[in-house]
Write a structure and sequence with these properties.
Layout (H helix, E strand, L loop, with lengths): L1 E5 L1 H6 L1 H13 L12 H16 L3 E8 L2 E10 L8 E9 L8 H15 L4 E7 L3 H8 L3 E11 L5 E10 L1
Helix pairs in contact: 2-3
Length: 170
C-alpha cells in the first residue's frame, strides 16, 4: 500500500475512487455521517466540498492506494481559532471492505498521528460509534475514552446510536 497526502488537485483527480470508498464504507454499515443507500453522486459532491479546505490547509487528507485504486483514507481537520491551534480532529478513517484486516486502518491512523505531530499539533480528538469495530483500533492505539453521548447520530440504517469521544496527546 502506498499512503499519500493529497493536495487539492490530487483529491479532485481521485474523487471517483474516494466517492466509491465512501459509498462502500456506508454500505458496510460504518457510521461516518451518511444514511444508506448513499448515492455515488452525493458522495462525489461531499468530497468536492472538501477540496477547498484541503487547498487552504484546514483539512489534510491521506489516501492509501493498492493497484492504483484508493482503498483507504483518513483526514485531519485543523482547528481555526487562535486558542485551539494545538489540536486537530481525526475524521473519516475509512478502509474498503476488500482491504480490511491487513493493518491498513492502523497504518492510516499512525500516518495521521505522525503528521499531526510534525504540524505542531499536540492533542487529537475524534468521535466514533459506540461499540463499533473502530473502537478496538483506537483503544489499542493508545487513545483515551473521554465519554459517551447517547443518541448522537443515526447509523446508516437510520437508528440513533451513541458516540464515544476519544482523545490522544501526540
Amino acid at each position: 500500500m502506498i499512503v499519500t497526502r493529497l493536495h487539492e488537485d490530487q483529491l479532485l483527480n481521485r474523487i471517483g475512487d474516494l466517492a466509491d470508498l465512501l459509498v462502500d464504507t456506508v454500505d458496510a454499515g460504518a457510521s461516518v455521517g451518511f444514511l444508506r443507500p448513499l448515492d455515488r453522486t452525493a458522495a462525489l459532491t461531499w468530497w468536492k466540498e472538501r477540496a477547498g479546505a484541503v487547498g487552504d490547509g484546514r483539512l489534510a487528507v491521506w489516501a492509501a492506494c493498492r493497484d492504483e485504486r484508493v482503498v483507504g483514507t483518513v483526514s485531519l481537520a485543523f482547528a481555526d481559532k487562535p486558542n485551539s491551534r494545538h489540536r486537530a480532529e481525526l475524521v473519516k478513517l475509512m478502509v474498503h471492505r476488500d482491504a480490511r484486516g491487513q493493518g491498513l486502518g492502523r497504518g492510516l491512523l499512525t500516518t495521521a498521528e505522525q503528521a499531526a505531530t510534525a504540524a505542531g499539533v499536540t492533542l487529537l480528538h475524534l468521535d466514533t460509534e459506540t461499540d463499533s469495530p473502530a473502537e478496538c483500533l483506537y483503544v489499542s492505539a493508545g487513545w483515551t475514552r473521554a465519554g459517551v453521548i447517547p443518541d448522537y447520530a443515526a447509523d446508516p440504517a437510520g437508528v440513533l446510536r451513541p458516540t464515544t469521544i476519544y482523545f490522544k496527546h501526540v
